[in-house]
């Protein structure tokens, strides 16, 4: 009871007024990273579509889709997404001194884990939605892939 009132006053005066601006500042790199994940997925699926349109090879299409399933674990391709979030390092350093925010690396790592999880969900959903269409007429496959991609991105 004796701590509650001073703690409430401290939060109201020293922390709450800054929360909105802090969140806005932090969301820039986070949003940028997730946008990069979306762009990477879009780019990879577009490459599958282009390759299929050139070759019309269903076996190669299956290989490309199988390779897409490994995308979340491909550190080279995911690296640009992760780099966007590394900007949090600088932003959180300022917060560390002002608000005693610790474990900056943990915040960045968790954000990158969420990005990988989002990509895992995207490729899994793509594969699940596209699987029944693999036996379809090869003339319609590219269109189907595009529709599935748009559905996943939605």
TrEMBL record:
Residues 9-154 form the Niban 1/2/3 domain. InterPro entries: Niban-like (IPR026088), Niban_1/2/3_dom (IPR059060). It comes from the Eukaryota. Belongs to the Niban family. This is NIBAN protein. It comes from Orthonyx spaldingii (Chowchilla). The lineage of its organism: Eukaryota, Metazoa, Chordata, Craniata, Vertebrata.
